[in-house]
Design goal:
There is one protein chain. With about 425 residues, the chain is an alpha/beta fold. The protein has a domain of about 160 residues. A 13-stranded parallel sheet has the order 1-2-3-5-7-10-13-15-16-17-18-19-20. Strands 4-6-8-11 form a 4-stranded parallel sheet, with no helix packed on it. The longest helix has 14 residues. The termini are far apart.
Length: about 425
C-alpha cells in the first residue's frame, strides 16, 4: 500500500509553507531567537531579516546593556531595509542587567525607535522599566505617515516627542506610568487615548490638544491636573483623580485655604488659571465617569464655570460631590438636560468633608428631569448611606432630585466597589 501523501493526509510540513508565512512564524520570536533560526537551513538563513514584527527583548539572555546595544546595532544594520514592519515591540519591563549601575551605557532606544519609523511600522510599543529614574526618550518628533498605534510605558517624555502633527494616521495613543514633562500633547488625528498612572509636572499644567478624540481614559496620575482643550467629537470619557493629584487640599473642599504652609493648594498658585481645566473639554460626551478622592478639588473648582453637557446621557460619579446638600451634583445635572441615567458609586468608607460656607443654603427650586429615568447606587453591602438617598424630602440628601414626584426608578446595587 502506498503511503498517503502529506497533502492527502491533511498534514503540512513546516518546510512546505511559503516564505511569507515563515517570516510571520519567525516574528513570533524575540529578535535574538529570530536571528538564531538562520542556523536551521539555507532557506532560513535570511528569513529573520524581513520579518514583519521586530521584538527587542533584553531579558533574552543579555547580561549587560552594552551587550544588548551591540547586538541591536548589528541587527538593524543587517536587516533588509526594504522590508516593512507591521509592528515593533521594545520591552524592558522589569528586566535586570548584571551590574547595571556600573555601566555607563543606556539602552539605545532612540535608534531602535527611529528604525521602526523608517520601516513604516504601523504599531510601536516601548515598555521600559528602570527603577527610580525612568529612561528619557529622545526629545525628537516622530514623523510617519503609517504609524497608527503608539504605546509608551514607564518612560520619560519631553515636548517634541508628543507633538504628533507629523503622524497623520495615528489614531490610538496610550501612556502607562512614566513621566510626561511636556507643556503640550497634541495630535490632529488621535481618536482614542489612554493615560494611566502617568506623572505630570508639578509646576505647570500640560495641555492636551486632540480635537478628533472619541474616547478618553485619564486616571491615577500624579502631579498637576492636565488642561483639556475642546474635544467636540468626544463620545465617552473616564477621569479618575487620586490623592497623588497635585490639586488637593487637606483643609477645604475648593483649595486656596489661605494656609501658606499647605503643601498642596498653597503651592498651586503658580499653576492656577481661570476657567475649566477638565469639564469644558469633557462637555461633548454622551457617557461620562468622574471620580475623585475626597481632598482633590478639581471637579468642584471647575463647576464654578460649569459648561453645558448638551449630549450627556449616562453619568457616573463617586463621593466628590457629597457636601451637606449635594449642590455640586445638582449644578452638574442642571447643565445636563438630556441625562437618562445617573450612577452614584460610594466607597466602603464614608468621606468626612470639611463643610463649605454655603453648604446650608437652600438649593434652587426642584426642577423636572424630562429624560432622567434611573438612579443607580453602587455601594458596599450594608451601607446605611443608601437610605439618605431614598428620602424624598427636599431638606434631605438627595431632595433636589424628587424621585417619587417625577416617577424616577432607583436601583440599589449593593456590591463591593473599588
Amino acid at each position: 500500500m502506498r503511503k498517503m501523501s502529506a497533502a492527502s493526509s491533511g498534514r503540512v510540513k513546516i518546510g512546505d509553507l511559503p516564505d511569507d508565512l515563515l517570516r510571520r512564524v519567525v516574528s513570533l520570536l524575540s529578535a535574538r531567537q529570530a536571528v538564531q533560526t538562520s542556523a536551521l537551513s539555507r532557506r532560513w538563513r535570511h528569513l529573520w531579516r524581513s520579518a514583519p514584527l521586530l521584538q527587542i527583548l533584553p531579558n533574552d539572555g543579555f547580561r549587560t546593556v552594552r551587550g544588548l546595544n551591540e547586538f541591536a546595532k548589528h541587527l538593524l544594520l543587517l536587516r533588509d531595509r526594504a522590508a516593512l514592519l507591521d509592528a515593533c515591540v521594545i520591552n524592558f519591563d522589569f528586566c535586570e542587567f548584571e551590574s547595571y549601575q556600573d555601566l555607563p551605557d543606556d539602552p539605545d532606544v532612540g535608534l531602535w525607535l527611529r528604525h521602526a519609523v523608517s520601516c513604516q511600522a504601523q504599531w510601536i510599543r516601548v515598555e521600559i522599566y528602570v527603577e527610580d529614574d525612568p529612561l528619557c526618550l529622545p526629545d525628537l518628533p516622530l514623523v510617519s505617515k503609517h504609524l497608527r498605534v503608539l504605546e509608551l510605558k514607564y518612560v520619560k517624555i519631553k515636548d517634541s516627542l508628543v507633538d504628533f502633527s507629523g503622524c497623520p494616521a495615528l489614531e490610538h495613543l496610550k501612556f502607562w506610568g512614566g513621566f510626561i514633562h511636556a507643556h503640550t500633547i497634541s495630535s490632529p488625528s488621535v481618536k482614542h487615548m489612554i493615560m494611566d498612572g502617568c506623572g505630570f509636572n508639578r509646576k505647570f499644567r500640560t495641555r492636551i490638544s486632540v480635537p478628533s478624540l472619541i474616547s478618553l481614559q485619564l486616571k491615577h496620575f500624579w502631579g498637576a491636573t492636565p488642561f483639556l482643550e475642546d474635544m467636540p467629537l468626544l463620545v465617552t470619557a473616564s477621569v479618575s483623580l487620586s490623592d497623588d493629584c497635585r490639586d488637593r487640599c487637606v483643609n477645604t473642599e475648593f483649595g486656596k485655604c489661605g494656609d501658606p504652609g499647605c503643601f498642596d493648594c498653597g503651592a498651586n498658585k503658580v499653576i492656577d488659571c481661570d476657567g475649566c481645566v477638565l469639564l469644558q473639554g469633557l462637555s461633548g460626551t454622551s457617557t461620562l465617569e468622574l471620580k475623585a478622592e475626597s481632598r482633590v478639588f478639581m471637579f468642584r473648582r471647575d463647576l464654578r464655570w460649569c459648561p453645558m453637557f448638551s449630549k450627556l446621557k449616562t453619568l457616573l460619579v463617586n463621593e466628590w460631590f457629597m457636601n451637606s446638600n449635594m449642590s455640586e451634583l445638582a449644578c452638574l445635572l442642571e447643565h445636563a438636560p438630556l441625562v437618562e441615567k445617573i450612577t452614584l458609586q460610594l466607597s466602603t468608607e464614608p468621606y468626612n468633608f470639611v463643610e463649605i460656607e454655603d453648604s446650608d443654603k437652600p438649593l434652587k427650586q426642584a426642577f423636572p428631569f424630562k429624560n432622567l429615568k434611573i438612579v443607580e447606587i453602587k455601594c458596599h453591602e450594608g451601607d446605611e448611606r443608601v437610605n439618605s438617598f431614598k428620602d424624598p424630602e427636599p431638606k434631605q440628601r438627595f431632595g433636589f432630585l424628587p424621585m417619587k414626584k417625577w416617577g424616577l426608578q432607583m436601583i440599589d446595587v449593593s456590591e463591593r466597589v473599588e
